[in-house]
Amino acid sequence: MVATGYEFKPSQIACTGRLRGVLERIGDAELALQSGEIADQEHMRRQNKPFSAG
Question: What domain of life does the native source organism fall in (predicted)?
Answer without folding.
Answer: Bacteria
